[in-house]
Write the structure tokens for this entry.
Amino acid sequence: MGDGPESDEDDPDAETDGGVRAYTVRLELVDEPGELLRALTPIADSGGNLLSIHHERGNITPRGHIPVEVDLECPPDRFDGIVQALRDAGVNVIQAGEEHYGEEVNVVLVGHLVETDLSNTLSRIEDEADAVVLDLSLAAPDGTAGVASARARLAIDSGRSAEALAAIRSIGTDKDLTVVEPLLGGEA
Amino acid sequence: MRLAILGAGDVGRSVADLAGEYGHEVVAIADSTDAATDPNGIAVADVLERKVGGEALGTRDPGAVFETDYDVLVEATPTTLDDAEPGFSHVRRALEDDRHVVLANKGPVAERYAELRALESESAGSIRFEATVGGAIPILSTIEDCTPQAVTAVRGVLNGTANFILTRMAAEGLDYEHVLAEAQDLGVAEADPTFDVDGTDAALKFVILANVLADGGFALDDATVEGIQTIPGSALDLAAEDGRTIRLIGEATRDGVRVGPRLVAENGALAVSGTRNIVQIETRNAGSLHSSGRGAGGPETATAVLSDVGRLPPL
């Protein structure tokens, strides 16, 4: 954020109408020194004012990470920029304000992943499926020129999994990749 | 009931073999070239012995079956797509003669459901087809008992060959081609396994389920179908990192049919292993019901045919 010639809405120094609101973001941090600072810096840098930090050390998420709840205040038009800055810094945002990124789903992609630009595939998933790629495993037993598989764990807004998966399916069709989706519904 | 059996493959022969045990009598059996008929009941053991020995079933033309005095036509000829012939014409002939029909042949029920129901409504006979979906597993009768309107979706694994291949790939870390060759050696996969591994066979079963749920409207062309041929062993390894595995899963609702490789919980109900089949019937008022068992095989499928025969009203 703030680097490069961006529009006024994205500039933390832009004038606002003076109203600020309180927000809560829920993050998931790797248990390593410096992670908390790394997560808080983008908030401050993007014009957010930190109010309180609840670092739940005793409470580990199923993935072995530490949940952290951050209360902050900022003008409403800056909040999206703060969440984006956190994601750009590689911080897992589980919940941001009213928005819950509560659903985590795995998808497995199969095909010429490297030759078809894996990083483009992942950014398209983030943009078009409105999902956050939380982590990624890649297996390319036949080398990067061969058929590879990747498992991506995605965070998706609650209740939006079906739409997100449909978007990923169409990205797969576009790039000639097989998308192995999770089975939603029932007791799968 | 007096049964006339069309088709003398594994299923047709097993129906003939087991009919007596279920209290029924076989008055005719035919394959594509000839037939054995006897109004007092054919000598099943002798006829089957001839067939297995490579001889003709009997001395009559296959069409002679329809001239026999029978109550139920058992249609167990091979499944064909599109116009589903000659299976469809066999069913029509029997219904026009006011006889019951029990199908083990998926073609007519998947591809020409509405026509079958229209013929049935004009006939004193009725049609049943439990054996077309999941072999020995009572899926259609469970849906019937729950009433189809209260069933919101049916999901599951209904192709044993594809499931065997995925199970072995996950367990042994092997690739598709290797496991397919092994499955063919074991007789689990056919010499030409296309319909099993490309999802067509499973799709036909889920099309039938969608037709039952929605009272018609679906054919194979309406299904979204993907197979397992493109799944490498590494995809199963990655799935396992997170406690998942990959299965060829079908889904049938009133809105459509979809079959493809999906991620399911490794220890979940749908991750059956080997050639086993499973369905999950999602109901509006009773949660999910699961039913698992042998989805193929002569005697297994014949039990579904004979259960259907037992549910038919007297003519």
Q: What stands out?
A: Chain B has twelve helices and twelve strands. The mean pLDDT of chain B is 95. The first strand of chain B starts at residue 2 and ends at 6. The CA atoms of residues 14 and 212 of chain B lie 26 Å apart.
